[in-house]
Amino acid sequence: MIKIIVISLLLILSFSTLADGEQGQTNKDKQEIIDIISGIKYGWENGDGTPFRKTFLDFKGARYIESGGQNKGLDSLVTHHVEPEKGAMEYMMLDFSAIEVHFEGENKHFAWVIADTHFKAKLKKNGRELDKKGHQTFLFRKI
Q: Where are the transmembrane segments (predicted)?
């Protein structure tokens, strides 16, 4: 009887350790995604394309959607929007909150993320202030 109890306890312990190991990896991957999103925030606010070039896949046919428009290729997004828009604004604040990360697939190498978005800026050209709230969807693939 004691043998059965010990074996049962060992099995329970091994399964809980395995599950905790997977959760630990998921938490690590989730934090990496949140760090990438923080880099995107930094890039937009500072007109710096480096975080985009570091983490976005760029391939023939790639399209990047922002504010309802689309850019063909990563270079178009960075050189026509990220970098010049900083110079057109007195200030810019971008905030992502309520970030939900969802992993899918056998190896959890695909994630989709939904976040609340708050954008505030003041245009240099005419002094117009923008204050927009909405939602953002991100798609991630671990490579």
A: none
Distance CA 82, CA 39 (A): 12
pTM: 0.77
What's the angle, vertex CA 90, arms to CA 123 and CA 133, rounded to 5? 60
Q: Are 74 and 52 in contact (CB under 8 A)?
A: yes
Residue keyed to tokens 């671990």: 142
Task: Say which residues have a Cβ less than 8 Å from residue 51's Cβ, sequence separation at least 6.
Answer: 36, 39, 40, 42, 43
**53 class by beta-carbon count within 10 Å (0-12 exposed, 13-18 middle, 19+ buried):** middle
Question: Measured on CA atoms in the order 69, 72, 74, 78, is the torsion positive or negative?
Answer: negative
What class has domain 2-141? alpha beta
Instruction: List the one residue out of 70, 37, 69 whose CA is nearest residue 56.
Output: 37
Task: Tell me the per-residue pLDDT of 62-95, one tens digit each, with 9 for 90 and over.
Answer: 888 877 788 898 999 999 999 998 899 999 999 9
